[in-house]
Amino acid sequence: ELLVELAKMQGRGDIATRIAAQPGRLQTLHLLTGGNPRAAVLLFHLYAEGLSSNVYADLEGVLDLVTPLYKARFEELAPQMQVVAAALAEEWDPCTARQLADLTSLPITQISPQLHRLEKLGFIESVALARGDQGWQIAERLFNLWFLMRLASRRQARSLELLTFFLESWFSSEEEVANQGGTDLAAWDQNAAVDLSPVEADLQQALCMAQKANWGEAQTLLGSALDLPAQNFTRPSLDDWMRASAVLIHLGFGTRMLEFLEQRGENLRRRPWFEAVRASEANQPELLKNVAPEVRLPAEQLLTQIQQRLARLPEATRKRPVISKPGGRRKRK
Predict the structure, then answer these.
(1) Highest-scoring range by mean pLDDT, 22-31, 64-73, 149-158, 191-200
(2) pLDDT tens profile 126-179
(3) What burial class does residue 136 get, using C-beta atoms within 10 Å of its C-beta: 0-12 exposed, 13-18 middle, 19+ buried?
(4) What is the mean pLDDT of the chain?
(5) Which residue from 57, 93, 306, 322 has the highest number of Cβ atoms inside 10 Å of its Cβ?
(6) Which distant-in-sequence residues (6+ apart) come within 8 Å of 75 by Cβ?
(7) 48 and 107 fall within a common domain
(8) Residue 41 CB: number of other CB atoms within 10 A?
(9) Do 26 and 128 belong to one domain?
(10) Domain C-terminal end among 49, 73, 97
(11) Domain region containing 40
(12) Are 70 and 146 spatial neighbours (Cβ–Cβ below 8 Å)?
């Protein structure tokens, strides 16, 4: 909305038109930047010069512009505060004081005072984690992304790049569904065998193999579906994958699926989905509190879709252990 208002104020109807044409792109940037007004203004100036090729290029442009400010802010911190802040930013997910002590090799007695000093400066914030633990994360999410892209390891920078591509695809698919009036999941399931796409065909065969307890063949077919050219989580393939995730968890293959996805690197390439599957398999939605906010929002929505499908699957075919509550005893019916 701020970008649209800026376009109107500057008499740049062309920018407003570009924004309206790619809402998924802006939703991605809004999530990644934490709704930072400074980022919105910088994006407007970038858009005024011409639209870049993708969201990642947009983000790169914004980070280039904020580099002098963020670099100065970071260097103003005392040396030990820099160590703690850097460890927290590079980890990306919220951390406990104990985790930070392990990451920095500093004693916990030195970590805690630095955390409280950083919190007073507004540099970090306290968050509630799963199981009631206290965690800490960088308060300004755009700074965290800047750190990942400019000062962290290549692996972390690559993780952010992959998340950006995932989110752009995912948000674009959500807009497509809204424009089409949504998709009836029950109707989709009933007609799953009609006019199968390559993804649907591989996934349906994978589920058949899982039903026969043939995990080896099932994971081969899953890999085939994931390797299809330009395969991503846009509609309708998003529905296909959420359905497959629910069925595999229902059949007791959730843990094996997670291991398989991690071996392939899908825990980085499609992390929101991976985290949603992990939380669903553990029957602990609160586990998503332990992941970065940029990952958590889409993961929560994907988790909801998986759980909705799980609730509709027949009890007679369930092989997944019943978990009465997080940390409770497991039993099979």
Answers:
(1) 64-73
(2) 999 998 999 999 999 999 999 999 998 888 899 999 999 888 888 875 544 444
(3) buried
(4) 84
(5) 306
(6) 82
(7) no
(8) 15
(9) no
(10) 73
(11) 2-73
(12) yes
Q: With the CA atoms of 116, 118, 123 and 127 taken in that order, what torsion angle do they form, in degrees rounded to the nearest 10?
A: -30
What mean pLDDT do residues 182-188 have? 37
Model-level pTM? 0.84
For the chain, give the longest Cα–Cα distance: 66
pLDDT digits (tens, 9 = 90+) for 199-256: 889 999 999 999 999 999 999 999 999 988 655 666 568 888 999 999 999 999 999 9
Burial of residue 61 (number of CB atoms within 10 Å: 0-12, 13-18, 19+): middle
CATH number of the CATH domain containing 115: 1.10.10.10
Q: How many domains does the chain have?
A: 3
Question: Among 94, 117, 149, which residue terminates a domain?
Answer: 149
CA distances from 329 to 281, 324, 326 (A): 15, 7, 9
Residues 266 and 201 reside in one and the same domain: yes
**Interatomic CA distance for residues 260 and 49, integer angstroms:** 44
Record the tokens describing residue 5, joined without a space. 């208002």
Residue type, 184: D
What residue spans of the chain are helical by DSSP H? 2-9, 13-21, 23-33, 37-49, 55-75, 79-91, 97-104, 108-120, 141-150, 154-180, 185-190, 198-211, 215-226, 237-250, 254-264, 266-269, 271-282, 293-312
Query: Under 8 Å CB-to-CB from 6, ≥6 apart: which residues?
Result: 12, 15, 40, 41, 44
Instruction: Give the whole-number percent of the chain exceeding pLDDT 70.
Output: 77
Q: Which two tokens stand for residue 98?
A: 């104990």
Q: Are residues 198 and 314 in the same domain?
A: yes
Q: Indicate whether 314 and 230 sit together in one domain.
A: yes
